[in-house]
Specification:
two-stranded antiparallel sheet; alpha/beta; seven-stranded mixed β-sheet; 234 residues; 9 strands
Length: 234
């Protein structure tokens, strides 16, 4: 699916993945929605252990359509504009650490990678690292340090408590992260359960995880001042 969609993107005229009206992969108006200032966007309530999450856009409208087109419809060229937004969130998150930036994307399951034909979160993490280096001159590394230890149920339709229970203990560290300062990355934050579980696994492996970065946050979450104490565990 992913390879076929990518080939069709090259061969056929494209419409903007966000609005569907303008020509091109993503039009300037929709791309601008991914370039906003990063803000702390915690869930309410925040799950225990959630690192402070930064996002650049609400998960709605054109932003939602771009993320879904990249993730579910194989429009892999969208990784770059999504990476621009993620890079801004990463750099805002890194401002809290004062350390070299190591990004660890939330891993996709093997089943979802087979269905989608690619790992969307890993792809936008790489794009964000390139963007940070080219645009801001910041060296950012990406590590596939996490893996799924067991299968989990589809998260769609689950409550925050059900998502936390579904994900508890699901991830494990597969690479040495002892002593590293890590920013966990994903495309979207919903209940925060996925990011909290990723942070738990990384901390169990000896990493410090003070922050997370995503492209978008769902509307059920409100922006919080950067100084707000979210109860995260460094």
């Amino acid at each position: 699916m992913g390879l076929l969609a990518a080939a069709l993107d090259l061969l056929l005229p494209q419409r903007c993945a966000g609005c569907g009206d303008a020509d091109g992969l993503v039009c300037p108006v929709c791309a601008a929605l991914l370039g906003g200032p990063a803000r702390v966007c915690p869930p309410r309530p925040a799950p225990p252990g959630l690192p402070r999450p930064w996002a650049v856009a609400p998960y709605t409208g054109a932003v939602r359509q771009v993320i879904l087109a990249h993730k579910e419809r194989g429009r892999t060229g969208l990784a770059r504009p999504l990476g621009v937004g993620l890079a801004a969130a990463v750099l805002a998150a890194a401002g809290d650490t004062g350390c070299p930036v190591l990004l660890v994307p939330v891993p996709s399951s093997r089943a979802s990678m087979r269905r989608r034909g690619h790992d969307p979160t890993l792809r936008i993490a790489w794009a964000a690292a390139r963007e940070a280096a080219v645009r801001w001159g910041v060296a950012v590394s990406v590590s596939r340090a996490l893996a799924q230890r067991r299968g989990v149920a589809d998260q769609a339709g689950l409550t925050a408590a059900e998502r936390a229970a579904n994900l508890a203990g699901a991830l494990t560290v597969r690479r040495d992260v002892r002593g590293a300062t890590v920013i966990v990355v994903d495309d979207v934050i919903t209940t925060g359960a996925t990011l909290a579980e990723a942070a738990r696994a990384l901390r169990a492996g000896g990493a410090r995880v003070p922050a997370a970065a995503v492209v978008a946050a769902t509307r059920r979450y409100g922006d919080a001042p950067a100084s707000r104490d979210l109860g995260h565990v460094p």
